[in-house]
Write a structure and sequence with these properties.
Shape: elongated
Order of helices and strands: EHHEEHHHHHHHHHHEHHEEHEHEE
Number of helices: 16
Strand content: 5-15%
CATH class of the largest domain: Alpha Beta
CATH superfamily of the largest domain: Translation elongation factor EF1B, gamma chain, conserved domain
Number of domains: 3
Distance between the termini: 46 Å
Number of strands: 9
Largest sheet: 6 strands, antiparallel
Helix content: 40-55%
Oligomer: single chain
Amino acid sequence: MAFTLYTYENNNRAWKALIAAQYNSITINVPKFVFGTDNKTDSFKAKNPLGKVPVLDTPQGSIFESNAIARYVARLRADSNLLGSNNFQKAQVDQWIDFATNELEAARNIWLYPIQGFMPFNQKATIEAKKEVQASLAILNNHLLHNTYLVGNQITLADIIAVANLVDLYKLVFTPEFLKPYGNVTRWFNTAINQPEFSKVIGKVEFAKEEAQAAGSKKEKVDKKEEKKADKPAAKPAAKPAADDGDDDEPAAPKKAKSELDLLPASPMVLDVVKKLAFSERPIKQSFFEELWPQFDDKGYSWFLSEYRYDDENKVLYMTSNLLGGFIQRSDAARKYTLAVMNIIGNADEETPPFKVKGVWCFRGIGVPKEMTVENPDSEYYNWKPIDVKTPAGKKLIKDHFLADTINRKKVLERKYIK
């Protein structure tokens, strides 16, 4: 079948259908489209009398309204279950799509459109929009505390539409401070955008470090006032009032503080040397642990078992793999200070859930470091148990996770090293 989607670039409403198409292996052509010109032609208005995008051309005719287009694409392949696997789930998918559209997207647009130049800035409306976005995030955060996805145990159209509405918020206005209360939302958001079906459409998402401001906002006016002051000859500096939020002379960014782990006494065991030894053969040196234990420094390093707390939700192997991949990506801050392995453990047929996610970690220092507990919000979804490496059982547990084909008589279905 031939499908063509008319839209301008980076239109979050068009992303809904394009991401769904990736999951359903559907090809949709997206020709170059000049909004403001192409949408005013008679031929386009025959497709959508409103003159708006996106519009999808199908063999049966044209469809407008982004959610209708996304649902149409989702229905093109039933076995992907993008609309839910049973009647109750289908209703839940519709529920969260309505929520993402009526509650989240409406407030999102009022906040972002002035920044993006689509509408004039209105301070009162922006303040109210921010409150409404926060209220929606709180609802999502509470739901995602015990759920990996919005509906069931896989990505559905509900996740696709909600994430599409959130991308520009994360890129433009969601600062690290703003996001602190919504760790579950960010975990879910990262899980989604790191799946190839999302990234092929939306690209890489760089999180905002500070909140973007709309032209005409209070902060911008204050900044312009300070710029005029800066053009005048230098005068004796006056004390700044405590409430001055228009400071144009920002201090130089402080250097990032050293990790507490960098300040520890030197260890006779150098982690980089240990890693080179471990991976001097592929995928790992079989005699590694026989060479490691005689030199292991139990005063400078510690071992921990990590166990995912919600294994009962891991019912699809490829989705469990995506979850694990996202967790490892978000563990980058700890990578310098650890040697670790993570495994997905299950049955030999690779089809029978649940799939268990376990790993063992050797950390610099004694304890799980802040680079893991603070910098990786997903670490709270794991139980961390110290391993006593002075015992044969502790050493066997570690070696099995790194090398064995089975752990506790269960098959290792996937193994990822962190080095």
